[in-house]
Design a protein that fits this description.
This protein has ten helices and 13 strands. Helix 2 packs across helix 3, helix 4 packs antiparallel against helix 5 and helix 8 crosses helix 9. The longest helix has 16 residues. The chain is globular and about 55 Å long. The model has no long low-confidence stretch (mean pLDDT 88). The protein is an alpha/beta fold and 287 residues long. Strands 10-9-8-13-11-12 form a six-stranded mixed sheet, sandwiched between helices. Strands 2-1-6-7 form a four-stranded parallel sheet, with helices on both faces.
């Protein structure tokens, strides 16, 4: 395995994420550039950039409309426009089972091949969303700083993604159902008897993990699920993304901290596309 021992990467790289990532685009290393390619959100025939609208305003617009809130992934050309022919490019997308964003990124790589620099483009299907995508990006940055070369890093990131877990606690499943991200029968569970289902990412798709009555019980059950499934927690980071629910996120962080010795617990605020699907009060957790 090729690796240098520099504190920073020996080659110039660019990390490109789609609009389902909340990770900061500010890098502390001049050899690492970052860019985000947004989704499009459509509410009452108005096109909205997934990172241009205030979160609270977006939620209000979603709840007020009687029409279906639709989204569109970035076009291949949009990804291609962000590629740097002189750098090693890493593209990270939401799960290919939830969006065509990954396919668009792969087509952008083919476009780069036609221009003669496709060998410098690596595309990752995060098999997750939101916090899972963020952790993937942060892992790439960490490995770049450790000096791993692109081909080795590619396989390491693929392995990291394979072993990552993602869970969701959502108050509303309306937009997920309307856009075909989960089955209507699964969503009905959340409307009955004040049940708060814990959802799990399985091979890039969202499935029901456990039914809990009440949000407090759901948080306790989620912490127990994480404790049972995590291995070598002291070596891992965990990310919590919330939709206008900082108190819930902090409470969950404290519960996890008391129970599981993760290396680092991070909290992110949702951006446009994750707000559309997770909706008000939603939490997405990845480790």
């Amino acid at each position: 395995m090729s690796v240098t021992h520099n504190a920073f990467p020996s080659y110039r790289s660019k990390i490109i994420v789609d609009g389902c990532s909340e990770v900061s685009l500010q890098s502390d290393c001049e050899n690492i550039q970052m860019a985000r390619v947004p989704f499009k959100i459509y509410i009452d025939d108005e096109e909205i950039d997934s990172h241009s609208m205030n979160r609270s305003e977006l939620i209000d617009r979603m709840h007020l409309t009687k029409n279906k809130v639709q989204t569109a992934c970035p076009a291949p050309q949009t990804f291609f426009n962000e590629l740097d022919p002189e750098a090693t490019n890493f593209i990270v997308t939401i799960s290919s089972k939830l969006s065509s964003s990954y396919n668009s990124a792969c087509l952008a790589k083919k476009m780069a091949e036609e221009k003669g620099f496709g060998q410098n483009v690596y595309v990752f299907d995060s098999l997750s969303a939101v916090s899972g995508e963020d952790l993937t990006v942060l892992y790439i940055i960490e490995m770049l700083k450790r000096g791993f070369m692109p081909n080795d890093l590619f396989h390491m990131v693929r392995d990291y993604i394979t072993h990552m877990s993602t869970y969701f606690i959502l108050n509303s499943f309306e937009n997920l159902v309307k856009n075909g991200r989960i089955k209507h029968s699964v969503a009905l569970v959340g409307k009955l008897l004040k049940i708060n289902p814990i959802m799990e990412g399985v091979n890039g798709e969202i499935e029901l993990k456990e039914k809990c009555r009440g949000h407090k019980k759901a948080l306790c059950s989620l912490v127990e699920i994480i404790a049972q499934n995590v291995k070598e927690a002291e070596l891992k980071n965990i990310a919590i993304t919330h939709v206008n629910a900082p108190e819930k996120a902090i409470k969950l962080k404290d519960m996890i901290k008391k129970r599981i010795p993760f290396k680092k617990i991070m909290i992110f605020e949702s951006d446009g596309i994750s707000t559309v699907y997770a909706d008000q009060g939603g939490l997405v957790i990845s480790f």
